[in-house]
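Q: Predict the bound structure with adenosine-5'-triphosphate.
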Amino acid sequence: MEKKELINILLVEDEEFDVLRVRRTVSYYDNRIKILDVVSNGRAALELIKDHPDTYDVVILDYQISGGLKGEELITSIKNLDPFIQIIVITKMTINITNYDFANSLMRAGAYWYCTKYPGNIEEYIYQPTDFILSIFNAYEKKRLERYKLRSDKKLTQNIENLLEMKKIIGDSEPMKQLKENIEKYAKSDVNILINGASGTGKELVAWNIHLKSKRKYENFIPINCGSIPGELIESELFGHEKGSFTGATANKPGLFEVANHGTLFLDEVAELPLSAQVKLLRVLQDGEIEKIGRTGKINVDARIIAATNKNLANEVMNGKFREDLYYRLNVVPIDIIPLRKRGNDIIQLFNHFLDYFSEDMNVEPPKVDEQAYEILLNYKWPGNVRELRNVVQRLIINSNGIITAKDISNPMILRNHIIVKEETNFEDLYQGQVLPLKDMEKLFRIKYFKYVRSISNSDSSAAEKLGMAPSNFYRMCKELGIK
Ligand SMILES: Nc1ncnc2c1ncn2[C@@H]1O[C@H](COP(=O)(O)OP(=O)(O)OP(=O)(O)O)[C@@H](O)[C@H]1O
Ligand SMILES: [Mg+2]
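A: Predicted complex:
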């Protein structure tokens, strides 16, 4: 059995007679209740609590001590010093015990309980002893629970912080900074969100971040991929069913809406939702109630919806594949995630991040990376976006012997799509269809080409090298072309 701890009491009482009466009242339980200190005024009580933190569990406080800090003001000061200390107030008969305002103001100040002292002719007890002792035990229990709650709240917060670290969004290019700001902003509200982005851009990661920063963070985050569940099962998956409601329904099954209650439901590939399920989903979003298959009566649910798609949902609406009213319900706030190839140096940051992460995971030293290798990464189009980059890093580490070179990366086993996509040069596109003298056209071309080569190089000297020029010539030509 759990060992019962001693309950330490600080008694604030200025009449010797009442000090004795309190001592006698609790004396039956001197194995549990210990009057550690007795003081006769409020200041002395505060000093003691300040000098001996975490010492007193319960303060028994006479309401009418003479002069100085007392009453509600003293109660509040004690609670400010140590919010876990529980305070029991004892008052003289002269105070009308049926006075509701009096009791209320004590409780508001932070007292746990109060009682009216017995008349002076009763020398044995200050109050009916069983009640008095019980309220001390209860006060102590309350202190313990409040402490425990604080500790478990701290642990939960720690868990959330760990999760956020695991789900960290890497990258500080302008669009990613903007994205992170939006996440902070939208997490504070409870509106539905539609995330749009190509495959592997981080849609689920963004949804996780919104959830973990929202007030729903201690509740469930439930992802469901609407594209991977057969159409006829999706409704029972989302809304649940009762046992026997159809062949194969051998047990009651809660729907994901119920599981996500008070939390977040992530509807991935939402464009794949069959039209019949769309109707039902719309109704849930409108009414906040679900109809379980085979059950009469509705169930209230409160789940935040974050939907994601790599399709243009507005087009799907135009083509009659997605309900317009549902589209507006989901798309209260749109978030667009840009493809990886447009994030510039984030590519390198992500590459290094995954390099450290997987090296540690595989228990190897992170390999060194050649400058030219980085340039290939910057030039590559990343059709599979961050997910592809992640896989590339894993493959590289497995094949690495301590250093990653340009040759390693351009190996087709590593970058499977390593064909630098040739943007078809279309003169009409490039120069607005003008026909210019060759000299002017050459200049335009040079400006464009110089800018392009610089954009994919780590430094000007590396750009010069790519163009087969001495750096000094490169600078001169940039100047002539008016490129800063
Ligand atoms: N900015 C980022 N920082 C760190 N990791 C990222 C980032 N973006 C994506 N990832 C990681 O890349 C992988 C793919 O991301 P995620 O699953 O969120 O993408 P998605 O858009 O949902 O992809 P799909 O369309 O394939 O479902 C995950 O492992 C994710 O943690
Ligand atoms: Mg996804």
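A: Residues 203-204, 268 surround magnesium ion (ligand 2) (CB under 6 Å).
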